[in-house]
Amino acid sequence: MTTWHDYVQATSRLPEWPYPLRFGKVKEVVSDVLVIGGGVAGCRAAISAAQNGATVALAERGNAKRSGAGGSGVDHWHGACTNPCSRVTPEDYTRAVFDSAHGYTSGPVRYISTREGWDTLQEAERLGVQIRDVGDEFKGADFRDDESKLMFAYDYLNRHILRIWGFNIKPAIFREMQRLKVDIHNRVVITSLLTENGIQGNRVVGATGVNTRTGEFLVFHAKAIVISTGSAGRLWSFVPELTASSSMSDMNNCGVGLAIGWEAGAEFACMEQTMPGRLSGFGYAPYSMANAHNTYHGTPIVDANGKEVPWVDGSGNELKSVAERFLPGPKQKFILGDGIGLASYNEEYRNNSLAPDLPERIRKGEFTLPLYADMSRLPEAERRVIFNMMLTNEGKTRVPIFDTFTRAGFDPEADMLQAPVMLPQGYAHSNFWGAGVNAPANIRAQSGGGFLVDWNLRTSLEGLYAAGGAPLFGGGCHGESHTTGRYAGRQAALYARGAAVAKPDKDQIQRELCRAQAPLAKPRDGIGWKEINYAIARIMQDYCGAYKNEQTLNAGLRLMQDLRETELQAAYASNPHELGRLLECHSLISVGELIMHASLSRKASSRHLDFYRLDYPELDPHEWAMLLPIKQLGGQAMIRELSLNHHLEAPYNGDYEQNYRQHCGL
Ligand SMILES: Cc1cc2nc3c(=O)[nH]c(=O)nc-3n(C[C@H](O)[C@H](O)[C@H](O)COP(=O)(O)OP(=O)(O)OC[C@H]3O[C@@H](n4cnc5c(N)ncnc54)[C@H](O)[C@@H]3O)c2cc1C
User: Fold this and answer.
1) In sequence order, what are the residues at sequence separation of 6 or more whose Cβ sits closer than 8 angstroms to the Cβ of residue 307?
2) How far apart are CA 553 and CA 568, in angstroms?
3) Atom 51 (ligand 1): residue with closest C-alpha?
4) Per-residue pLDDT tens digits for 617-664
């Protein structure tokens, strides 16, 4: 019996549910620190909390050994600013990111990520992740330091981004969690935070969850909690096999961490910032098509007649050689690198890229589609490092792309990869395999915003910390997620050391138990989670898409409320898996509401935030250059104004390093 279809045809029935059902059973878990979400940030938070003497429980939606966006690997580690070859200090880097984001990012998060990023990576090395060219495979290459054997990406002069062999990084940190006796609860969808006396805005003292195999209800008691649940996919786009996050990301990441924080009364920043749904389900398998982005940075792109598309530096000057694609231009301080959660880059830090006027030149007939990636034009070491080293370590490319292509006879020295054929404007971004213009413009993605945290990575709620990519305002990419996880775990453990055990509120737990089990008792002629998810995505597309105004946003909020009170109440789940997905829909509605409230609060458009209000078209007026932290109490959204530079103002001091030293807990 090999497939589902074989089974159904042979037996004429559906298989039995394969796990024992424990609906109505309650399991209590007690620890000093609870980590919610076992991606790279969560696992690192758990390790660090345990190293700091805390007992730790971790709740993970999938299996923490491979779950999350980083579960399938990583080929380059950003922000290793204190590595022995780096010419960029954590402060240089933080200021570069802060200036590029026009202040709409978190200074503490960026500084902490780069101050401790190299230390975090060295810990990964001790856990079995290869971070040096120990086999001397690339000896003498421009991107290698022959003494330390470290290898660099994007900027071979300033050397703060490292190429690493990270295909096994998740299993390595998973093993370390097991060694440190972290109490790992896989297949659990967390559904709510518990607060002291059950009051919104109070200290966070626990969480509830449902096991998506058995249906068992879990109550976690903890003195401190770290939320690291990744991004909010499935919010703007969902048709069963076509999610907003595509095959690129993890379908379990659907904003639950943001939602439970919003329900508990925590404060968020920049939730109005979104970006095009470039990596939505309308794209191709990651890195399967020609492109010159990220892992493929530097790859020559040619047109149907073999004519090469020029590369330019961050100031737009044409580059003559392949070597220059990996060096800063004359007007640049250093190259920041792509994929660090930044919507725009100042000229001084911008990456080299394909000529940005490529769409126009295609339109005029200067380049003929289709385009191809021709790696045979690369120097041998560059070709080998991209194809044989990076593709075999980057997430989701080792087997689907490298193995499949190689087995099929693809030879990067002789063969070319074709780019998708798109409208000319699709070639404005060099990630051609993403959806580009093939995704409808109203499909957006959450971007940049998240929990507003202080220099301890503590949220506005006592006992609650945030780490990782999307749930953290200003979170970056893989290396940054490990690093903020490691830092937040340490802070949570330190807090837990001095904190009293708080009693969770019985009524709050009972209410959550009822909510979490209600869909099991609904009649089967109602609707299921997929229809609800589809409706949520439709509301977001129509009322909170690329352009919005007061009316569309208010209509969106009204429709979300209707959905919550009518269809969602009637929706059923026939097994623990469906129950988990349906409970995630509750969270998706909350995240949608949070984004729409945040969008209503900014009465101006902003190029920096990729945020366009039809009723307030003026772009980035001076008086709106601030954060608008938002929280929810008693169903009311509450907004305040906060200086973009607040992290260097009282009660903090004006220096990054001093703030770090005061708060880092080392
Ligand atoms: C294919 C791919 C390749 C990438 N390559 C690179 C790279 O080379 N370099 C780089 O810097 N970055 C890269 N990135 C980005 C990087 O992987 C992410 O930035 C990083 O993994 C984010 O870490 P995280 O722990 O915050 O989130 P994730 O790793 O996504 O982990 C979030 C975890 O939370 C869990 N979760 C969600 N909801 C719940 C819930 N309700 N209850 C319990 N658990 C929950 C999820 O199951 C998941 O395990 C890549 C991403 C992808 C998808």
Assistant:
1) 367, 368
2) 20
3) 69
4) 999 999 999 999 999 999 999 999 999 999 999 999 999 999 999 999
Quote the tokens at residue 18: 């394969």
Q: How far is the CA of 129 from the centre of ligand 1 (A)?
A: 18
Is the beta carbon of 191 within 6 A of some atom in ligand 1? no
Give the sign of the dihedral formed by CA 154, CA 156, CA 160, CA 164: positive
The atom of ligand 1 lying closest to the CA of 75 is: 8
Residue 229 Cβ contacting ligand 1 at under 6 Å:
yes
Determine the average pLDDT of the residues in 15-41. Answer: 96
Helix 656-663 / helix 107-126 crossing angle, nearest 10 deg:
60
Q: What is the CATH code of the structural domain delimited by 26-280+443-498?
A: 3.50.50.60
Residue nearest to atom 21 of ligand 1 (CA): 70
| DSSP code for 135 | T
pLDDT of residue 384: 98
pLDDT average, residue stretch 408-436: 93
- 196 in Cβ contact with 46 (< 8 Å): no
Residue 161: is its pLDDT beyond 70? yes
The H or E element spanning position 570 is helix 567-570
Q: Is 297 in the pocket of ligand 1 (CB under 6 A)?
A: no
Q: Domains of the chain: which residue ranges?
A: 26-280+443-498, 294-438, 519-646
Residue 1 has pLDDT above 60, yes or no: no
Residue 536 has φ and ψ, to the nearest 5°, of -60, -45
CATH class of 519-646: mainly alpha
Is 391 close to ligand 1, i.e. is its CB under 6 Å away?
no
Q: Is 230 in the pocket of ligand 1 (CB under 6 A)?
A: yes
- Mean residue pLDDT of the chain comes to 95
Tell me: pLDDT of 122 over 70.
yes
